[in-house]
Structures are given as structure tokens and as C-alpha cells.
Specification:
Blueprint: H1 3-17, E1 25-29, H2 34-46, E2 55-62, H3 71-79, E3 84-88, H4 91-96, H5 107-124, E4 129-131, H6 146-150, E5 172-174, E6 181-183, E7 187-191, E8 205-209, E9 212-215, E10 221-224, E11 234-238, E12 248-249, E13 255-260, E14 268-271, H7 274-282, E15 285-287, E16 303-305, H8 317-330, E17 334-339, E18 342-343, E19 346-347, H9 350-361, E20 368-369, E21 376-378, H10 396-418, H11 428-440
Parallel strand pairs: 1-2, 1-4, 2-3, 13-17
Antiparallel strand pairs: 5-6, 6-12, 7-11, 8-11, 9-10, 14-17, 14-21, 15-16, 18-19, 20-21
Helix pairs in contact: 1-2, 7-8, 7-11, 10-11
Length: about 450
């Protein structure tokens, strides 16, 4: 990407979202990496032709890690007349005292310390705004979850039609006869770490759990929503947070999307057979939620199968399987898989997922048969596509990975038949549907 294009993106974001106002002084947190250094440099250039007058400075937190050399960045800033300040800290010493069970430094803890110290530096140097740089790949896990997809504004393109009506991003039921949907909860259950201190959305937090509080300079109690000692704070959030929230949607549901992070599945595929569509939900591949109680040392990024993304089920799995199968088989509900993780090393960006959803809703999506699969169709192009995600079934490595992922689903369905004395056993048709996928890759 050229410097001209980067500056164009900054200008577009500023003008579209009114990010910078006249008289602002912006503090850029500078780690010394390419992303933060580029952001500082670009803002120093952008201020020369921006629509308003503003200033920008850089703040580097000296973490205390051994053998760190920041001289190249210092020289670069001096050469380009950019203000850059250094702030000493004891972060490295603190990290060494708070290692994980297997002896590793905590990256998440380090990140939170850096952010807090940069904000302190911003206040020290008279800044009223702070900017942090992240590569586009860093944003994949932020902005592709079901909550973000549910509450996406789509740049207002549907406002003329009354906007997007939001039922609930997590807790709702679908009537399998009328296909109407009803929210089960009047509020939202959310992570407090998503709401920095001072965030406007905090006014909608009704209660919090597992979260600290402190007193500000005015003697008012403030939540420590980004508590570095505990990343598992939770909050009950008012439904008023979502302006288009409704408690019931009478219009029949016409599509189901299984949101997965399986790296062998393209950004979107369409499932044709009712048994296959339902069993793919029963073998949904995702990552462990921080809301779950897990054993120490659990790899939170490892894929695991969580039937219908519901780890709290208290009834036989076949109940859900039969209900979803009925919607697809008898009510003509379409079923898709969207991959919001990465596809064979290429990140599926939020822009991809939102573009896919918009094309499907607007009737622009074009699907075609995928390889030897009888019941899976694929879409190769969509609005906002960020990369070439075309799968190559002639590639032995990819084909083997895809076959292994489907075999894992076969193993899971077979496991349902024996675990808990067969309590979660699915019909034979479910097993046959996933076995057919493995056979198509043989």
C-alpha cells in the first residue's frame, strides 16, 4: 500500500466519522513497530492538509525489556520534526512476577499496562485524544463475533427501510411452526473488558460481576472495566443500548447462519440438505468462550466442537437437531456457514462477513456447486471482498486439511452415541450426512 493510499484512508475515516476536531492534540502510542510508527508519521503529514488544525505527538513506554534499541525510531522522528516522548515504566518487572502457569509472560497483561501508561502520558503532554495503531490482521477477532454482526449499522444503508431490527444477539428461540422469534432475555450479558472507563456505553450497564471499582478525583465511584488482574468481568446491559431492539419478530425466519472459525471452510458456503445443515450446527467448530469455566492451561484459541454454540444445554442434543432440521426441511429456511476466523492462513475480515450477509439479504449472492459435494454450494465473490479466498481442491495439503476437519465431525457424531450413555445420540442420517462429505474428498 502506498503512502498516498494510507493518507487517503485516514482522510476518509476522519471525514466520515468526524474523528479529529479543530484544536485537538493527539497522542499516538508508539511501540517502535511498523504500525504505530506509520500512524504517527501519517498523522504528522495529514495535519498539513487536514480540514481542521490539530497537533500530534508520540509517546513511547519504556517497558524495561532487555536489549531494546529505540534509536532508529528516535532518529526517524527527529529527522521528520515529530515530537516523541519516552516514559519509563516497570512493566517488565511486573510481568515477571505474574507469569502464566507454564512460565510465559502474559501478552494481554502487557497490552493493558501499555495502554494505561500511554493514556497517562497523553494527559502529561496536554493531549485530549489518544490513537493506537493496529494492523488490519489484528482486528479479525474484534468485529466478527455474533454480537458485532448482529448490531452492525451497515453504514446506514437500510435506514430508509426502518433500519435493522435487533431481537437479541444470543438468547432467543424460534417457533418451528410459525417461524417467529422471541427474545428470552430483556437485557444483554456482556464482557466488561469491551467497555473502557469513560466509554459512553457504560451508561447502559445495569449491574456488573467479577469487576473492581475505584474512586475518581471527584469522589465518584468508577468501574474498572478493563481490570488487568481479571479479564473475565461481566455486565448486565440494558436493551436500550440497542436503539432498534425488539422483543419479538413475527416475520418468519428465512435463513440460519452457523458462525464458525474453522480454517478449512471458506468465508461462506451454503448447505442444501436438511440433515447436513442441522448436523453442521451440531458439530459447530468454534473457540472456547471466556464465559466458560475451564481448566488451567486450556488453549483458548484451540478449535473445539460446541453443538449449536451452546455449552449450557440441559436436554438431549437431538431436540435441537430435530428443530433445526424441521426449519430447513419443512419451512424452506436457508442455511449457511460463515467463517469469521481465517481461511488457510488468510484472515476473513469483518468487511468480508458483512459484505457476504448484505449480498445474501439483498439477493445479490450467487452460489455454485463446490467440487464433488452434492449438498454444499460456494460463493466466490461478494461486496467488500478483501482477499482471494478461492479454495483449491486440487491442492493435496488443503484437501487433506478439509478432509480431516470433516472427519473430526464424523468422530464427534459417533462420540455423541456413546458419551453419557448415548444421551446426545443423533439419528443415523446425521452421521451419514457428514460421512458423505469425507467420502467426497476421498
Amino acid at each position: 500500500m502506498t503512502m498516498k493510499k494510507v493518507l487517503g484512508c485516514i482522510r476518509k475515516a476522519d471525514e466520515e466519522f468526524d474523528l479529529i476536531q479543530d484544536g485537538d492534540k493527539i497522542c499516538v502510542g508508539v511501540s517502535g513497530g511498523k504500525d504505530s510508527t506509520l500512524l504517527l508519521y501519517c498523522l504528522s503529514l495529514y495535519k498539513k492538509f487536514a480540514r481542521v488544525k490539530f497537533d500530534v505527538v508520540g509517546v513511547h513506554i519504556e517497558m524495561g525489556f532487555p536489549n531494546m534499541d529505540f534509536s532508529e525510531v528516535d532518529n526517524f522522528c527527529k529527522k521528520n520534526n515529530i515530537e516523541l516522548y519516552h516514559e519509563p515504566s516497570d512493566v517488565y518487572e511486573i510481568l515477571k512476577l505474574n507469569k502464566t502457569d507454564d512460565g510465559r509472560l502474559q501478552c494481554s497483561l502487557c497490552s493493558k499496562f501499555k495502554k494505561a501508561l500511554v493514556i497517562d502520558g497523553a494527559k502529561k503532554y496536554g493531549c485530549n485524544k489518544v490513537a493506537f495503531a493496529h494492523h488490519g490482521d489484528d482486528a479479525v477477532e474484534t468485529g466478527s463475533g455474533k454480537s458485532t454482526l448482529t448490531h452492525a449499522k451497515h453504514n446506514g444503508k437500510y435506514d430508509a427501510f426502518g433500519g435493522i431490527k435487533v431481537l437479541h444477539d444470543d438468547a432467543f428461540i424460534i417457533n418451528t411452526d410459525s417461524c417467529a422469534s422471541i427474545a428470552l432475555e430483556p437485557t444483554y450479558f456482556d464482557k466488561t473488558a469491551d467497555y473502557p472507563t469513560g466509554c459512553a456505553d457504560n451508561q447502559y450497564l445495569l449491574t456488573v460481576q467479577n469487576c473492581s471499582a475505584t474512586m475518581d478525583e471527584d469522589g465518584k465511584i468508577q468501574l474498572v472495566t478493563e481490570d488487568v488482574r481479571n479479564g473475565n468481568g461481566r455486565a448486565i446491559k440494558s436493551k436500550l443500548w440497542s436503539p432498534n431492539r425488539v422483543d419479538k419478530i413475527d416475520a418468519p425466519v428465512n435463513a440460519i447462519f452457523w458462525i464458525m472459525k474453522d480454517p478449512t471452510i471458506p468465508p461462506v458456503v451454503k448447505l442444501k440438505g436438511a440433515a447436513l445443515a442441522s448436523v453442521m450446527g451440531a458439530t459447530l467448530a468454534t473457540k472456547t468462550s471466556t464465559a466458560e469455566r475451564v481448566a488451567a492451561g486450556t488453549d483458548m484459541n484451540a478449535l473445539r466442537i460446541v453443538p449449536y454454540a451452546n455449552p449450557f444445554r440441559t436436554y438431549p442434543l437431538v431436540n435441537d437437531y430435530s428443530a433445526f432440521k424441521k426449519l430447513i426441511e419443512e419451512k424452506d429456511v436457508d442455511c449457511y456457514i460463515v467463517n469469521t476466523g481465517d481461511f488457510m492462513g488468510t484472515k476473513c475480515q469483518p468487511a468480508d462477513t458483512l459484505g457476504i450477509l448484505e449480498d445474501i439479504v439483498e439477493g445479490k449472492a450467487t452460489f455454485e456447486k463446490w467440487g464433488n459435494f452434492d449438498d454444499i454450494e460456494i460463493m466466490y465473490d461478494w461486496s467488500g471482498k478483501t482477499a482471494d479466498f478461492r479454495p483449491n481442491l486440487e491442492d493435496p495439503e488443503y484437501k487433506a486439511a478439509l478432509k480431516s476437519a470433516m472427519q473430526n465431525r464424523v468422530d464427534a457424531v459417533e462420540g455423541f452415541s456413546t458419551a453419557k450413555n448415548g444421551y446426545d445420540k443423533l439419528p443415523d442420517e446425521a452421521l451419514e450426512a457428514v460421512k458423505k462429505l469425507v467420502d467426497a474428498l476421498s
